[in-house]
Structures are given as C-alpha cells and as structure tokens.
Amino acid sequence: MASLAVWIIAGVGGLIAAVFGYWLFVITEGMYLGQRIVTWLYDASAMRYDDIKQYDPDMEAVFLGRPLSTALKSVPAPLVLDVGTGTGRLPGALLEQPSFRGQVIGVDASRRMLRGAAARLDGQSHRTTLIWRDARHLPFPDGVFDAVTCLEMLEFTPSPRAQLTEAVRVLRPGGVLVTTRRRGWQARLMPGKYTSRDAFRGLLESLGVEHVELQAWQMDYDLVWGVKARHQPSVVRHRVDVLICPKCTSTQWIEAGDAVCCDVCHTRYRRSHGIIDMRG
User: Fold this and answer.
1) What is the model's pLDDT at position 241?
2) 231: Cβ–Cβ under 8 A, 6 or more apart, which residues?
3) pLDDT digits (tens, 9 = 90+) for 137-189
C-alpha cells in the first residue's frame, strides 16, 4: 500500500508539474520568467512560427492590409511602425496593397524572428527597416508615425499599459493605432495581463486614443482600432530620419556601409541581413 501511495503521489505531482509547465511556457510564453525568456522562446520557434500560427495571407490582407491601407489613403506617403513585428506579417500584408505608397519600420527583440521578416520582405527592402531592439523604449521622437501597430504582443510584455503608452507616444495626433486584446479562457489565466473589453477601451481612452473599436479577430484575440486625439498633418519622412540614437538622442545619421552611424556621437549600429542592431 505504501508503494502504491508513493506512485499516486508521484503521478499527481508529475501531472501538476506538466500542467504548470504548459501554463508557464505555452500559455504565457514565459512572460512571468522575464523578457529574456520570452525572447529566447521566440528565437527557438522562429523557423516554425508561421506554421504554428497557421497564418493565412488572404485573411491577413482582409483584416490587416486592406483596412489599414484604406485608413491611411489620405496620407501622401505614410510612415508605419510595427511594434513586435515578428516575422513581418503586418508589413507584408500592408506593402502588398496597391494603394499603399508608404514605408514601414518593424521593431522586435528576437533576432531570429527578424530574420524571418527580412526574408519575407526581401523584395520590399527599399521600403522597410527592421530594428533589433526591446520595444519598451522605442528609438523614435514623439508623434512621428502615421500609424502604429502592435499585434499579439501586449500580454507578453512586462507592462501592457506601459507598452501602449510608448506606442501612443510615437504616433502623431490623428494617427491610427491598431492593437490586440487577448481574450478567452487562456487570457484569464494570465494575472495582470487580462483586461475586459470595457477596461481595455477605457485604458486606450485614458492614453488619448479616440474612436476605439474592438472586433472579434482570431480565436484568442480582438482586433482593436483607434485614432490618437486631436489632429496634426502628416509630414513626409524617410525611415532613417525618425531614428533616435540611443546613446545621445541625436536624429542625425550617416549611412556607413554595413552600419548606420550617428553623426553626433559617431556610434555605429551594425546592419546585417537588413536588420539594424540598436539593442543599446
């Protein structure tokens, strides 16, 4: 009987450990272990990420590319920032739209995910810039982007509110914000990360985002659209012109072969495979 009890206890303990591990590494993607673990997991899954997510290019165009291109149709040469760009799904969907005449910057902390984005966007490299950097502190001035997107990533950041605040900061007044709200039973298992629809709307409005609309998107997400309060005309800018040097905060740059170089403090930021290393 004693040995049977030991086996039962061991079995229950193993089951609990398995469930806990699934929650910690699959549902929450390691978020409660810190940002480095999250990045490591994305690096590890980068080659299979699109297959895991089962992305459908046609659906990406319907829900992301076409609506965003339409929202920016009055902007002559829109500049778009994709925060947590991953394998470049949003830039890919947007740049394929014939009516979109702008440029896109993608930021991500995972080098291997960015390599996937570089491969996806290879034919659009003249219209894209990929930056390897933690998105909590974006290397851009206030109010320079005509649209900012951050999809399926808020709940995997240390502070979703802080990340949204940073996204709104770099969006020009009148610019378009596109983000996502995690929903469903798994979302409720993420303390500090789950937000109800009404609370999420209230959060965006408190940050100065108006006309907030939530629509059911994927199984686990709402797609959320909004516009930054007030209005400021768009100014045509090149992708490099809006970069801020993390070392000295200068916005003056020189192209230097395999790097971009700050023209004030002369710090070189290496560029490889179309990706600028600005980890700081």
Assistant:
1) 84
2) 173, 174
3) 999 999 999 999 999 999 999 999 999 999 999 999 999 999 999 999 999 99
User: Residue 214 forms beta bridges with which residues?
Assistant: 224
Q: Which residues contact 142 (CB under 8 A, 6 or more apart)?
A: 169, 170
Task: State if pTM tops 0.85.
Answer: yes
The number of domains in the chain is 2
Q: How far apart are CA 9 and CA 6, in angstroms?
A: 5
Classified as helix, coil or strand, 26 is helix
Label the pairing between strands 209-216 and 253-255: unpaired
Domain of 189: which CATH number?
3.40.50.150
Q: Give residue for tokens 């209005």.
A: 231
Establish if 79 belongs to a structural domain: yes
pLDDT in tens, 18-40: 888 888 888 999 999 999 999 99
Q: Are 8 and 121 members of one domain?
A: no
Alpha-carbon distance of 42 to 61, in angstroms, equals 24
Task: Report d(CA 132, CA 38) in Å as an integer.
Answer: 15
Structure tokens at 36: 């480095």
Q: How far is residue 235's CA from residue 78's CA, in Å, rounded to a whole number?
A: 9
Residues 8-29, buried b or exposed e (16+ Cβ, 10 A)? eeeeeeeeeeeeeeeeeeeebb
Distance of alpha carbon 257 from alpha carbon 268, whole angstroms? 10
Q: Please say if the pLDDT value at position 280 is more than 70.
A: no
Q: Is 154 exposed, middle or buried (0-12, 13-18, 19+ CB in 10 A)?
A: buried
Residue 233: pLDDT band (50, 70, 90) is: confident
